[in-house]
Amino acid sequence: MNPGDLSAALRVVPGTTVDLGAVDPAATYGRRKETAAQELERDLARLRILQERLWAENRRRVLVVLQGIDAAGKGGTIEHVMGAFNPLGCPVHGFKVPTEEELAHDYLWRVHARVPANGEIAIFDRSHYEDVLVVRVLGLVPERRWRPRYEQINAFEQLLAAEGTTILKFFLYIDRDEQRERFQARVADPEKRWKFRMGDLETRRRWDDYIAAYEEVLTRCSTPVAPWFIVPANRKWFRNLAVAQILADTLTNLDPRYPEPAEPIPPDLVID
Ligand code: ADP
What we know:
By secondary structure, the protein is α/β, with parallel strands linked by helices. Helices cover about 45% and strands about 10% of the residues. α2 runs parallel beside α12 (about 235-255). The protein is globular, with a radius of gyration of 20 Å. The relative contact order is 0.22. The mean pLDDT is about 95. Adenosine-5'-diphosphate binds near residues 96 and 130.
């Protein structure tokens, strides 16, 4: 494997058992901070063009799922990577504690309603995976309800893929020390304090439970049509670079094309 190819290096090969203890959240795969900004700019330039073509082509769809423990950088990734896109073709959806109406339906109902349409790249900030993460860790439904969800989620993603959606799922992986530093920085900074909630400490106390829940997600739900990527995210510059590069490589493979105009345009047409 070429360590330069981050898509291959970070992808969870379907069928492998993931042990996050063996993954270094500070890894940079030979990249250097000094040259990262330039490399990122190049990838963002590629992404801008590819997204415009996907939007113009109006035939295929891309779904990007972002997951990670609190402070892993989902918001920062959206700002720094997806900021390259024309917002018209790039809806971003955050999934919070379900509303009463959402809870009165099956857990995929609110998710299915937000999957991308033709030409769109939809970004999920949290996703249906919360239904086997927070729901499992806090025991919000009994195990007999959440246990079958891995298979249900795989089947759901299979359906989306068969209908023309390319799916990419990123797990932004930071370690406990990095989370402490980020939380501490949030608390200290008047412009970041709003991001902090006392409830975040409760989630932090259950770190090991969340890691175990993530390991099961990564092990059971990385499939050929909807792979997971484990992105070492202690270093924000590497996280951005990795997500941008994997997205750009995927879109390059899709090779979206500008369509022909809806009706023929005479080559000598003069607009007066
Ligand atoms: P974020 O932390 O993503 O910036 P919030 O602080 O609003 O945004 O957090 C959203 C909260 O909603 C998280 O604590 C998350 O675990 C919770 N959540 C998301 N989906 C579900 C779900 N299906 N069931 C219960 N809680 C959920």
